[in-house]
Amino acid sequence: MSELRTRTRKETPKDEQSLNAGLLVRAGYVDKLSAGVYSYLPLGLRVLKNIETIIREEMNALGAHELLLPALHPKENWEKTGRWGTMDDLYKVTDTSGREFALGPTHEEIIVPLVQKFISSYKDLPTALYQIQDKFRMELRAKSGLLRGREFRMKDLYSFHTDDEKAFSLYYDRVKEAYKNIFRRAGIGEVTHLTFASGGSFSEYSHEFQTITDAGEDTIYLCDACGVAINDEIIATQTKCPGCGADKQSLRKVRSIEVGNIFPLKTKFSEAFGLSYKDRDGSDKLVRMGCYGIGLGRLMGTIVEIHADEKGLSWPSEVAPFSTHIVRIGDTLHVRQEADSLYTELSHRNEDVFYDDRDDVSAGAKFADSELIGVPRVVIVSEKNVAKGEYEVKERATGTVSFAKKEDLLRATG
Amino acid sequence: MSELRTRTRKETPKDEQSLNAGLLVRAGYVDKLSAGVYSYLPLGLRVLKNIETIIREEMNALGAHELLLPALHPKENWEKTGRWGTMDDLYKVTDTSGREFALGPTHEEIIVPLVQKFISSYKDLPTALYQIQDKFRMELRAKSGLLRGREFRMKDLYSFHTDDEKAFSLYYDRVKEAYKNIFRRAGIGEVTHLTFASGGSFSEYSHEFQTITDAGEDTIYLCDACGVAINDEIIATQTKCPGCGADKQSLRKVRSIEVGNIFPLKTKFSEAFGLSYKDRDGSDKLVRMGCYGIGLGRLMGTIVEIHADEKGLSWPSEVAPFSTHIVRIGDTLHVRQEADSLYTELSHRNEDVFYDDRDDVSAGAKFADSELIGVPRVVIVSEKNVAKGEYEVKERATGTVSFAKKEDLLRATG
């Protein structure tokens, strides 16, 4: 911590109305450049990368291949789908030669003509590609911190299939499971619900994953019997829970954040670009598609909203920037040596350790910082503890305090 | 390979004038979206990530901290340095409320006001922050494939120091060594030279790292005696080699690609934003800065230019997308089993293995693809080899062929 120059702040910045950004700025995870545009400081980038790792592992487990598409999109591609003129939140840039580009808010317009170069037969299907990449959207109300960005990192997966509806449906269900795994590993599984949403003009439903919290901008109707929900947009058209058939009257209205969405696109984009394949019988058919998104910054902000308390952040283990936070109290040679060696030994065991080795900072300020920063396990090394040959261990989430000898700490993580 | 849908091409696309992009497109590593704007396909992204890893390790070894800054930069920040009006290649966007943003081609305008929030005393210095992030530059001549992009991934490091010139100089020299390590690990160390360049109006020199190749757009004057060079821009002002003092006449004029540059910024940007610190004696002083860049796509393109031959790509080991490429020739059950089990066993040893398990592709086409794709070690599993109980092993770079038993292959990588 003495090397990391970012600092915690006592006061929430006046221009932050949301809990998530307020705490993340105070704890030194992010910095606001302008509304909906945030810098990720070293601590925040560690969390973002942990979220990336979870998502990447679950996408790879689906057999999807990772690629990386550009943010600068030629106008022609967006004209082909008609969205150049209809998408209000599209940032547009013109270069000196007069060529126009969109800054990509999504990538159907890019990936469809790309896969067209590689797909020609039913033998090339199914296939799925994803990326983790920065998107742009001209948000007018960017007041929710990391929940609604003008520039935001997103995972977008696109799947390509033959016209076999059943095969598509099985794949779509596998993605649902992958999404459940992601939200469970990110620590919000219990409050995140598969939610039925509009399928647009061509599918019966699309699906959202909605996390219940008062900080949410969305409203959903949750079925306590089976755990699925219906979103605000289509509730008027439904008579019963699409999950278990329970009566609509039994659904509970709650506020929520949309942390992911999955969408059967059918042939909407294949048609726009003429993405077809030759089937077994020699006929040409349009490729069936699905698209599946997760905003990483929004997910990070949601985790904050769910787990923070009055003292500060509290990270679930898989996304935490560090697993252990050593707080050294006092600066005698003895305490320094004990804390330094614990830091070294835990680090050598591949443990991610944050070490408050700062001088000239009071014990109270160090404790407050450790609670604000929210690493799951805080180990306090003080003169008193060292004399007793043990460390004080505090679980951030529960506040539980216990005492452990060094070999117990090392064993627990070895 | 049967799962990866990207395909190799026999012909170089007509719109690719450069060797690097021509080969990378043919081999299925990248796809051109528009001039200077490329998609990284799964193979290309693997190489890009390997380059990222090398750079990240060397930056972390310097004690620099990684962060992630936005691409959308408020106009005000660029007005403060006067570059909003003077930088011709700045992409500008306006949102519906009339607010203007630049798409960041570099990040001094963002990082200086950011660190201002965390630096106040000489005790907070030195510090260094870096990111690996996508930049935008309105290039008019984007004809060199990955060497010159309109959108490109870059590592940019910024260091912050007190006014102690000697301490800055020592740090600057450490970055030079880190850069040499990066280019050595990326396989172009022997042809990459520290090159003296203009220091602008405020420093005597800045430095470039120039890789000698006829594909380069730059001209440098190389001193064969000591290995340093002088760039075209300042050669007229120099009388001797700044490395060893050799006479200017002995320098050799060669073409080259600038793969990195490092720049002592002195207080140019600190002054614009008023970034100062309180010194030991209580006086306020401006922070001294350095900035250090490497374009990742350009580095990837340069590696191609240096190592490719008439058969295709040839990757140095640390950047290669895979370490071993198993080519299965024939589709009898026996050959399949042998190749499948070799793939599984090498993969379990954490080897990155590319496996040509495609049916309906001739042996000749498979060999040609393996040479085009350029994985360092190709292992051929054919009926003939299997009968002899050994595999044919071909080094891509040298063409050397040897034969090895399975246990030798597994041992070599274990």
Describe the fold and architecture:
The structure is a homodimer of 414-residue chains. Chain A is α+β, with helices and mostly antiparallel strands and 414 residues long. Chain A folds into two domains: 19-307, Bira Bifunctional Protein, Domain 2 (BirA Bifunctional Protein, domain 2, 2-Layer Sandwich); 324-413, Rossmann fold (3-Layer(aba) Sandwich), CATH 3.40.50. Helices cover 30% and strands 29% of the residues of chain A. The first copy, chain A, contains twelve helices and 21 strands. Chain A has helices at residues 19-26, 42-61, 75-80, 83-86, 108-115, 165-185, 268-273, 296-307, 333-348, 363-373, 383-388, 406-413, and strands at residues 30-34, 37-40, 65-66, 72-74, 91-94, 100-103, 127-136, 151-161, 192-198, 205-212, 218-222, 229-231, 252-266, 276-278, 284-286, 288-295, 324-328, 353-356, 377-381, 391-395, 401-404. In chain A, the strands form five sheets. The first copy, chain A, has a five-stranded mixed beta barrel. In chain A, strands 18-17-19-20-21 form a five-stranded mixed sheet, with helices on both faces. In chain A, a hairpin with a 2-residue loop joins strand 1 and strand 2. In chain A, helix 1 (19-26) crosses helix 8, helix 2 (42-61) packs antiparallel against helix 6 and helix 2 packs across helix 8. The longest helix of chain A is centred in the middle third of the chain and has 21 residues, at 165-185. Chain A is elongated and about 80 Å long. Chain A starts with 18 loop residues before the first helix and ends with a helix. The mean pLDDT of chain A is 95.
